[in-house]
Amino acid sequence: MTLARTAALILGAAVTVAAASAPAADLAIGGAAPDFTLPAASDGKPVARRELLSKNKGVAILFIATKCPVSNAYNERMAALAKEYTAKGIAFVGINSNKTEPAAETADHAKKNGFAFFVVKDDGNKVADAYGAQKTPEIFLLDAAGKLTYHGRIDENQDDAKGVKSPDFRNALDAFLAGKPVPVAQTKAFGCTIKRV
Amino acid sequence: MRTRRLSLLAAALFVFGAPAAAEPVKLLRPEQYRPRIVEAKNGRVLVVNFWATWCIPCREEMPRLVAAASGFTAKDVAVVLVATDTPKTAVAVPKFLKEMKVPFVCWQVKSADPQIFIDAADRSWDGTLPYTIVYDRKGAAAARLAGPQTEAAFAGAIRKALGAPR
Asked: What is the pLDDT of residues A147-163, one digit of tens each?
């Protein structure tokens, strides 16, 4: 088998979404979120949501961008949250669905911003469509069964991490890990529109 | 093309008066949205365009809104901009409007929590930018336009709100 053919097979296996690729209506809180396997932006190796779920208490999916100033305003917060909550059993995966931001750029951005979590490339925005994700940053928190427990923003204060009064994503993570209902399970994410094909 | 742009701009200035970009951008709290923006314009069709300076599609859309509005008179149609920039980026709002010679009044959102403003403006709005609401003469939402629009889409929505053939 040639190297090119092997690479093609890996890539083919890496881009699968167990859902229709047309833009979905908003996923309901408590509803099953679509499965996916996407290639890591850094090396193309497949990252499977199913595998992350099987090894963790939950999975936090972060739709992110390299050029969006709003998403970039949250880089430090995303890195810090991932570090803190990965240790508590939540897997983090950042998804870049922007057609304007290639894998190499996405991987470089993740490295420069200290993202110690999987960052994958969603070419053709199939996963963004399946999840109904519209913006960056936009968060989907799934329980171990793959059901949606939180959807929305990280917090309300784009400008000042120290001035945050409504840490909605953190609140959701804490409640989820404590086995309690998420106090506000749905917020309105704000940021740049995902640049779709 | 350049000639057409200049004539559109000239037409816009004629219809809407002197460029409002010269005016200071006023702050708008969530509770002020209905009384200061929507109800203040009752009797005319009102186009409210929500945008931000960091939003590239919003910036690209702006000339199309200017061009679409140039086809209507100020007696029938008012256009108001609402910038959703945060305090850090709000300084760029008047600069952009001046550079682009945008002839509309612009308000700047003042809300500690963006979601409170979004809900005050339109509970069905998910916060996507750009976003435009076209109100009829009585202040009822006649069209909600999510994402960047073409000149024709703006003009069509305005004509529909006016009750004119599209």
From this structure: 999 999 999 999 999 99
Residues with Cβ within 8 Å of residue A75, at least 6 apart in sequence:
A113, A115
pLDDT for B42: 84
Write down all domains in chain B, each with its CATH number in brackets.
2-162 (3.40.30.10)
ipTM of the predicted structure? 0.85
Instruction: Yes or no: say if A168 and A156 are a contact pair by the CB < 8 Å rule.
Output: yes
Choose from B91, B129, B145 for mutation: most chain A CBs within 10 A. B129
Q: Do B113 and A166 touch (CB under 8 A)?
A: yes
**Residue range B30-35: average pLDDT?**
97
Beta-carbon pairs below 8 A across chains A and B:
44
User: In A106-147, where do the E strands start and end?
Assistant: 118-121, 135-136, 138-143
Rounded to whole angstroms, the maximal C-alpha distance in chain A is 56
Q: Which amino acid is at A104?
A: A
The 10s digit of each residue's pLDDT in B97-111 is 999 999 999 999 999
Give the residue numbers spanning the domain of A26.
3-193
Residue in A112, A106, A166, A177 with CA at minimum distance from that of residue A136? A106
Q: Do A188 and B54 touch (CB under 8 A)?
A: no
Chain B residues within 8 Å of chain A (Cβ atoms)? 54-57, 84, 86-89, 112-115, 118-119, 126-129, 147
pLDDT surpasses 70 at B82? yes
How many structural domains are present in chain A?
1
Share of chain A above pLDDT 70, in %: 87
Measured in degrees and rounded to the nearest 5, phi and psi for residue A162 equal -75, -20
